[in-house]
Amino acid sequence: MRIASRLRLISAATLAALLLMVPVVAGSLLAFRRAKSEYLLANAVKVNFLERNSARDQYFLHREERAKRQWFLHLDEGDALLLKAGALFREEGDAGTIEELRLLLKENASIFQRIVANTGALQRAGGNREILEELDKRLYSQMLLKAATYNGLAANLERGTGARVEEAYRRLAIIIGLFASTLAVVTSLAATHLARLIRRRLEPLHAGVRRVADGDLDFRFGAGPMDEFGELAGSIDAMTDKLQASTRELERETARRIKAVAAREGEARFRAWFDLPLIGICITSPEKGWLEVNDHLCDMLGYGREELKGRSWADLTHPGDLAADQVRFEQVMRGELEGYALEKRFLKKDGGILEAELAVRCVRTPGGGVDYFVALILDITERRQAEAQRQVLSAQLQQTQKMESLGSLAGGVAHDMNNVLGAILGLATAHLEVQPPESPAHQAFDTITRAAVRGRELVKSLLAFARRSLAEDTELDVNAVLMDNVRILERTTLSRVQLELALAPALRPMRGDPGALAHAFMNLCVNAVDAMPQGGTLALRTRNVGDAWIEVQVEDTGAGMAPEVLEKALDPFFTTKGVGKGTGLGLSLVYSTVKAHRGVLELKSWPGQGTLVAMRFPACEAAPAPSAASGASAARPGQGTLQVLLVDDDELIQTSTGILLGILGHGIAAARSGEEALALLESSSPDVVILDMNMPGLGGAGTLPLLRALRPDVPVLLATGRVDQTALDLVEAWPRVTLMSKPFSMEELQERLGALSASDVPQAGA
Ligand code: ADP
Ligand code: MG
């Protein structure tokens, strides 16, 4: 039942109970009022009696008219009161008493009238006074008697009514008390009941609301008693429904906004790195083509964004790299790969090539197809160039190192070989002179001499190649050197190939070793001829390049070289020719000869088309007259007159040169070292000193300054197996010092000494 209905019920019941009590209370109240009125009337009757007594006594004493009127006034009053009481009083006894009192009142009135009459009589009488006075006395006492009776009755009446008033009052008090306490009890019972009921219903509500407030939006009170609390629970449920719905909506909206913000931030971040000018990035779709291209890629390829989007991937790919890219792309499309990386060349807008490292990755659709590709393109052109340069440098370094080590080996061998050859050549030539021509001994010495000369040439080449040093350093005309070669070739191999000569008429001279150069050019010509077994054209060209350089080209139309052969062609001992046919030393010798002349060599070859060897040498300005003495000396054995100091540590040279000098008729003093020579010079003064460069101890270079200090004018022949910079520097630094290549024949020795005799040495007897 609803609380309001219960309340109404309770208050109705209470009211009914109260209404039931109202007549009782009212009755008591009326009874009380009646009793009170009776009592008041009884009291008034008594007071009236007392007033009448007072007026009577007054009259009796003074006989005044006023007292008499008073008395009768009170008599009327008393009569009226009794009349009123007669009507009011219901009690049996009371009615009798009042009747009696009325009677008494009447009797009193008559007695008083008699007293009044008697008084008049008294006043008028003169005689019978005693009787009248006696009568008076009797009447008065009659009145007193009556008054006492009256008083007793009136007092009774007053007492009776007073007791009734008290009784009525007590009853009224009890009834009002009962009424009030009933009301209090009923009210408190109803209140307690209601309070308990409300608490019982309110508690779960309170707990539920608290749960909702704590965030449990799934909580509902559900169906329950349909009172006000039930309605409230229903309303709270409805409110929770709405709250939950709006919370969900709020959550959805918040999530949506967070997503939107995240998307915006993600996009900004993506843009930030996408636009970094570090690497080319593009996003392409197999169906829609280019989706995104960053500025850096546009810059790398030289295209504007829209231009680029108008081109296909294949358009931008170097044809040579298209296949490799395509194969991988198809593998990704088939689902075999997720991405790939390769180095490839892109075609730039300006026609240039972009060497790049490409990394591609695909992003698939849920169905497994390719949604789009992300491609990163890194420009490695510079890196590639640097790599190529590094390769060239490292090849050059390797070549140099190879040459160096081979050089020191060859140099060591050549030096000792020179001395051996020197002895053979010297003695053979010496004996050749004295043998009658056509004799077998002459023929034998002749063969030994030629063999030794060839050996000497070989050692020369070996030294030239090994040390990059020059046996000679003279100004020379390259055209002339080439023409010498041509003459040799014409007599030997040129029948098979056609020669094309293009020699610059005003070619600048250069400094160097004509023999070494001729040897190098000859090697190139031999290679060219070898490369053209079916015939072809051999071209020899020279030209000036600027002021500082001249260039020599040897070109053929032969087989050419495959790249791997070209790579190794300059290596010593690398040959593709059969055993006994090639040594593999030809090109390496050419290379070291060119280097020794501070030149540059370029080797180009096209397989099946031919080979071009281009060499550049520093040109030189003037053409000073050769300093060497010209013409063979006519000197013959035995004609010499010079005192020669021979300084050489090699016993073979000592012996052989000693013999040669003896044959030529010169006097000899021999020293095994620079130190020994200096000691000798203290006491002797030779006409010529032959000073070996390569000796232990001071050596040629160390001895020369000290020697000059002792003998400033003596001519010196500086004998050396190879003409290096030290030797050249010495010749330049000291006057009257001439280089003499080892080994030398008797003829050459005679020539050198002859030249000295002609210029520097005062001829004995001349
Ligand atoms: P060799 O001639 O003894 O083999 P080289 O050093 O002169 O040694 O040459 C080395 C290699 O270089 C040759 O074996 C040959 O394969 C190749 N070569 C040199 N010059 C030419 C040329 N003009 N045409 C084709 N191949 C050449
Ligand atoms: Mg060769």
Discrete helix count: 20
Radius of gyration: 82 Å
Strand order of the largest sheet: 2-1-5-4-3
Which fold does the CATH topology of the largest domain refer to? Four Helix Bundle (Hemerythrin (Met), subunit A)
Number of domains: 4
Could you tell me the mean pLDDT? Answer: 86
Which consecutive residue ranges, at least 5 long each, have pLDDT under 50? Answer: 622-636, 762-766
The top-level CATH class of the largest domain is Mainly Alpha
Shape: rod-shaped
How can the largest sheet be summarized? Answer: 5 strands, antiparallel
Which ions, cofactors or small ligands are bound in this entry? adenosine-5'-diphosphate, magnesium ion
CATH architecture grouping of the largest domain: Up-down Bundle
Question: Beta-strand level of the residues, as a percent range?
Answer: 5-15%
- First-to-last CA distance: 170 Å
SS-derived structural category: alpha/beta
Helix content: 55-70%
Number of strands: 17
Quick summary:
With 766 residues, the chain is α/β, with parallel strands linked by helices. The chain contains 20 helices and 17 strands.
Topology:
Layout: H1 3-62, H2 65-88, H3 92-124, H4 129-213, H5 228-274, E1 280-285, E2 289-293, H6 295-301, H7 305-309, H8 313-316, H9 319-333, E3 339-347, E4 353-364, E5 370-379, H10 381-434, H11 440-467, E6 474-476, H12 478-491, E7 498-502, E8 510-512, H13 514-530, E9 537-545, E10 549-556, H14 563-568, H15 586-596, E11 600-606, E12 610-618, E13 643-647, H16 651-664, E14 667-671, H17 674-683, E15 688-692, H18 699-710, E16 716-720, H19 725-733, E17 737-741, H20 746-759
Parallel strand pairs: 7-9, 13-14, 13-15, 15-16, 16-17
Antiparallel strand pairs: 1-2, 1-5, 3-4, 4-5, 6-8, 9-10, 10-12, 11-12
Helix pairs in contact: 1-2, 1-4, 2-3, 3-4, 4-5, 10-11, 10-16, 11-15, 12-13, 13-15, 17-18
Magnesium ion is lined by residues 523, 526-527, 582, 586.
